[in-house]
Amino acid sequence: MTYSIEQMQAFVAVVEHKGIAQAARELGKHVSTVREQVNNFEIDTGLTLFERLPRSLIVTPTGMQLYKYAKALLNESDHFEAKIDSMHSGVPDRLTVAIDTSLIDQEIDLLLADILQKYPYLNLKVLNGDTLQVRGWVLSGKADVGLAFAAVMLSKELQVRKAFDFEVVRVIPAQWQLPRDASERALADKLQLTYSFLAELGLREADLVSHRHMVCNNVHQMLNLIKTGIGWGHLPQFICNSANLNDDFTILNDQFALWSAEVLVKEAASVNPAMQMFIDGMCNFERR
After folding, report:
1. CB-based burial, 107-131: b 16+ in 10 Å, e otherwise
2. pLDDT by residue (tens digit) across 49-76?
3. Domain HTH lysR-type: where (predicted)?
4. What is the secondary structure of 15-28 as a DSSP string?
């Protein structure tokens, strides 16, 4: 027995619209064409799918059972066609994006959601790590594209594009009760939390203010430690603004610095449409 997609489409439309004329309008076909397709579908299946009354069709219990399977099959057919279109567009089966844990933000999640909306058959994987891990994953091929703190560390094996700038502010525990205009001198004897990647790149001195320090590998770990009162640190303001719901910490008035995030792609990599959408989205972000 052979059934065509067009026959199943006609059958499903007649069931859903409770009539051939209404189904024909939905499908954009002549009534005679839809009637013939439904009749042939019944002949080919050898089943009575409709009870024919003078002015209407009523789906039989047998027809309703078959409708559920036909509907599922048509959905799979749509997925199949969409997958073919995706392959013609050059979109791969998989995409791995590495994102610096310290840059995780709702806006980035929304961009990833938009990519999946446009490419629904893309198997998207997201890796989170510190700045050097993200660079290493892209270099090794474990990640196709990465987002990390901009680092003074050039590599001929990487394509680097500036993503966005963001303000870095001094953040202290709320329980310290220091004024918002407190100076560096007021923090010099207190424990400072600093980033591990700065130490590994030999750039820690540019961040250090205090005589004592503790190394952390991401902003969120630093922020949690600051909330406990253990120390203070320099953090991206856009992260702090979304995290200070209970006034657990205080942002001092002076801006410490303006840092940048960068998008990383391996030099030899072929940039496919999904990768390009991520790169363009990140590079179109406004200053945070």
Report:
1. ebeebbeebeeebeebeeeebebbb
2. 999 887 778 899 999 999 999 999 888 8
3. 1-60
4. HHHTSHHHHHHHHT
Nearest to 286 by CA among 101, 162, 112: 162
pLDDT at position 246: 67
| pTM recorded for the entire structure | 0.70
Query: For 117-162, what is each residue's pLDDT tens digit?
Result: 888 888 899 999 988 899 999 999 999 999 998 876 667 889 899 9
Rounded distance, CA 27 to CA 30, Å?
Answer: 9
Q: Are 92 and 253 in contact (CB under 8 A)?
A: no
Tokens describing residue 75? 């959905």
* Residue carrying the six token digits 């363009």: 280
How many C-beta neighbours within 10 Å does residue 30 have?
A: 10
> In whole angstroms, what is the distance from residue 285 CA to residue 288 CA?
8
Angle between helices 273-283 and 106-118 (to 10 degrees): 150
